[in-house]
Q: What sequence folds into this?
């Protein structure tokens, strides 16, 4: 973890799950952390768990829909730490509903948070990274960013969109010293399914079995940070579900049959 020593690392979605695990692991590397999410009390709890001194922490509440505030928040980070080395774009929302039942407002919310919010924060941070001639975006996609599955149409669409945007960004900014890593988690043991949207926009409120039995989130964080330190462009982390990405590439017909015959969500 020496790659992250004293580096300024901004984590969105830092109040739980992957974001919290990243913060704790980076705390051990003595990084300077900016912790963002909507819930201030949870951010403060995570800040304590990092074990870092106050000089290395900035709790910066933010809502990924409130994109007009992002330039001001970038200014706050620069005022505190003087630079931004890494942005872990981890805030996101998932879904549990069939296309025929899903209200259009659910799709709009998924795109606003998962895609447009991420794009807006990237654009707000980019001028700083250009002036530094360095920086690294780490974007949390999903296996669902490579494969479309039942009950996840809006989530899959928003994650697929991230790949197109950040692949383009990587090509445009590489010569400026800016790097981009897209990570596609499989089933990781986080509370993401509890906050999934149903067809009417209400919360799913259940912990899915696959999520409950998924990879421990601290193990995921360690693997991701190793990949980021190695400047990997795209990385897949999870269990056997990761093989679906390779089936999509080499045996798409077989994967299609598997997915359409799969029961439930």
A:
């Amino acid at each position: 973890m020496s790659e992250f020593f004293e580096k300024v690392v901004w984590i969105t979605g830092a109040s739980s799950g992957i974001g919290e695990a990243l913060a704790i692991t980076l705390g051990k590397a003595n990084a300077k952390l900016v912790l963002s999410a909507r819930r201030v009390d949870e951010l403060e709890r995570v800040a304590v768990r990092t074990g870092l001194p106050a000089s290395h922490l900035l709790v910066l509440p933010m809502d990924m829909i409130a994109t007009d505030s992002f330039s001001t928040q970038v200014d706050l980070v620069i005022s505190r730490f003087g630079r931004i080395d890494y942005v872990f774009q981890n805030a996101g929302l998932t879904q549990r509903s069939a296309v025929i039942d899903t209200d259009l407002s659910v799709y709009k919310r998924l795109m606003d948070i998962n895609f447009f919010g991420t794009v807006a924060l990237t654009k707000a941070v980019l001028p700083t990274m250009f002036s530094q001639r360095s920086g690294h975006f780490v974007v949390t996609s999903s296996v669902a960013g490579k494969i479309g599955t039942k009950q996840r149409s809006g989530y899959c669409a928003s994650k697929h969109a991230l790949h197109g945007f950040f692949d383009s960004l990587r090509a445009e900014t590489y010569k400026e010293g800016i790097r981009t890593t897209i990570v596609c988690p499989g089933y990781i043991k986080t509370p993401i399914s509890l906050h999934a949207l149903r067809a009417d926009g209400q919360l799913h409120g259940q912990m899915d079995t696959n999520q409950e039995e998924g990879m421990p989130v601290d193990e995921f964080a360690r693997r991701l940070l190793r990949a980021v330190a190695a400047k990997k462009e795209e990385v897949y982390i999870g269990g056997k579900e990761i093989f679906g990405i390779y089936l999509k590439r080499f045996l798409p017909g077989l994967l299609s049959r598997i997915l359409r015959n799969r029961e439930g969500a």
Notes: Residues 2-261 form a domain with the Rossmann fold fold (CATH 3.40.50.720). The mean pLDDT is 96.
